[in-house]
Request: fold
Amino acid sequence: MTPQSNFLIMAVIKPERLLELREILGSMTSKPGFANPHNELVPFARLDTLHVARFTIVEAKTAEDICQHGVPEHQWKTSLAFLGDCDGSAELLLKTMVDIAEPGLRKIFSTCEGFNDQQSVLNWMLSHDIKPQANYINWVGRTVRQVHEEAALHKSLSGYMQQLVADKGDQDIRAFRQDLLTHVELEVEAGRLTITTPEATPAGWKLRNLIHMFGIPVMLLLISPLILIFSPFILWKLRSLETTDPEITLRPDRSHIQSMSIQEDHDVSNHFNVFGDVKPGLFRLILLKFILLLLDYSARHVYNRGFLTRIRSIHFARWVLLDNNRHLFFASNYDGSHESYMDDFVNKVAWGLNLVFSNGVAYPRTRWLVKGGAEREHLYKKTLRRHQLPSEVWYKAYPGLTAFDLARNSRIRAGVEQYPVDDEAIREWLRLL
Amino acid sequence: MKSNTNNSAGGFEFDDVQSLIRFGNARLVESCFLLLKIADVLAAREWLASADISTALLKDELPEQIIQIAFSAQGMKMMQLSDEIIEGFSDEFIVGMQGDESRSRRLGDIGENHPQQWDWGGSVEEMPHIVLLLYSIKGGLTKFRQQLEDDHFITAFEVSGELPTDELGVREPFGFVDGISQPRIDWEQKQSTDIHQRDQYSNWLVPGEVVLGYRNEYGLYTPRPLVDAEQDELALNLPQAEDEPGLRDLGRNGSYLVIRQLHQDVIGFWKTVHRESDLDPHKADELAASMVGRKRDGSPLISSSQRLIPGISRNSINNQFNYDLDPDGIRCPVSSHIRRSNPRTGDYPPDVNGFLSRMIRLAGFGQKRPDDDLIASSRFHRLLRRGRSYGPRLHPEDAIRKGAEKADRGLEFMCLVGNINRQFEFVQNAWIMNSKFAGLKNERDPLTGTREPLINGAETDKFKQPTNAGPSCITHDMAQFVTVRGGGYFFMPGIRALRYIARVKTKKDGDSV
Reply:
């Protein structure tokens, strides 16, 4: 299988070019915030390893919040974030992108500081690339090609199935399956369907993954005596901060909410950007980094097959510390409406949100790190919306498909390629079509 | 949690709550919903100050006529409530059901359903200020209304419209028995809302999910306008806010009323169902029942559950069921209307029965099937329905005959909720209209859904009935059967809040004059 990679190119925008940049990015969309896959500047559709991508203008809209911690506002210069998730090497993708879209990229990045026409766009992008502290991939190794092929397979099988039911309604299910398999073979021969065998997993990646998988627990084991010794202090410090952290209950502006909701629900999936300050103090920073380490670990080795605890609707998500650990940037791609996304999080994994985001300024008060916080439904939703940012352009390579659809399509393919265990398995498989 | 610092009725403050929040008033079979514009604010205040709005207090003698009242955001502005107070309501109430393209998109109010096509409420200008709900026993409505619309009333209000309603029967216009399932409000607040105690589905609902000013299913208070009596003397009329005793609660004992006039294409529905069943009436009935999730006589497609559902009486055999034993949707298709509008889920999938199994699920493990745990927990998304149908009755057998008359018929869908966004809009968007509900493949509600294709062109006009045999039975190319003709979000105030809106003065000791 081909593991995915990501990129996040971040650059400060020249203030006098900001308006122009918005117009340039706006020209790439077919609906508000929604990419035209064949736009003239960066034709995303021609990048066949790109799953999702976005151009977001990262502005500090909640900069004053941190003053309630007795700390002066951090100066953040409005920046352009260009991020994406792809199959295989991100560097290779960026190189291909430059080959296809150099003029468009130049036009966009020329509005950023430190970019000049002489230099290589690729080098400039690579030098501005930032790696996340934690990264989540719904299904590690599921490529864009696989998504498209399995979706086509499903469509073909469903269509033929309907014909079979009409013509031969009562036949034995094994005969049904045989007919469907024959249909697939014929379609593949005729070139109307392709089912590519996954590539071999790169050895280097396998090795690094294995080292990480065992290395982190070993490292944690080694430092655990230290953690144990300091645990009374840690717990005391945590509670002392939790009870004294200011509670910021500002209501998000309706026009701000509208700037985001206008971009939502054009596809069955949506995107999400959250940007805020990390709470001041070394304790909070170390805690956050530790939690992000655990999150990244679990995403890589535990939650890499379609689910992130109880949530199955996230395609890609990442957590990035920016500006010398002063800011946290969260970007995700999820299925369903914003409200159902919030509902899932509040009701199914509030504890997880609390672990990470309680270290961000203005998050609702938590108790013992996992209680409270997102459980305080209304306050949580308010503060998320306040810290949310719209994207100028958002692209997803498979419109109309949810993560669950993708998993189902893989099961359908497995039903074609693998011999069924028993009749019930065949029935279950037929029910998917 | 026992609350009520302002306990006046020995229990819940029923004398301050409008009747409709507690009773469906099914005895009062005649109804008429007047859409009013405020013509003269002073006259309106006078009328509202002494209006006999029926409360939820159980009287020995049951009333023969009742009036209920609700205000739109425009209505509250017209009554000259301060901006600060109006901002205390939710965003969706302030903006209105029709006021935001993104909201319309989410609710499925697009194409034929778009507010631009509505008969009423489709714009800020068309939004009524007040909705006056009149109910009467049979034969009494006309006189009741005549008595109501006296000189004083006519000075104060202009009747800008009237929602059609029919005499209340047991069946809704498609011919199905309706109103069987309702959440049961836990007025005495015996059920816990704690997340460790609600693994399974319960029909009890904490009062705060419908009545503002009380704890909701999160154990917290839904925001509503709170007024400082020190700055506003008239606020002494209002009850104290439970969560902020220093302030007065304009929302307490009130609720949000959602109204949507839904036109039902009874002829189209039954003709489609017959056509798809090779004109066999029995099969047609079965297909229709699959789409609704109940047979026409109201009996569910699922047999009674083994475990009694709390909040549903043992004798309610038509309501004592959940979908735990039918995950494939073979008995009752997952896409069916009642399964979508109330999936009867608990906080956790059905197999969770203790701390360990809960922890395993919490971490995302223990899945029994690829498609389990996809639906949200129902208790945060319940609707207290109070709708009434309208239009000439057309029997299903007559609907398929040649020359069956098209008419304006449908449902004035009405529900009472504490949180419009999380309850009504969530059900409508994440459940009813969602083409991916519970992992379905591009199907919307067969009865009430739009047939809008997805952005990649995928059609959503199918209805799939899974079978035991394996291959599913699919109905294709369904037209839209329900069209939105009007609607709005309204605030149904408590009685004391109503008097506050009417600017009734207070005596020195805080009682209203």
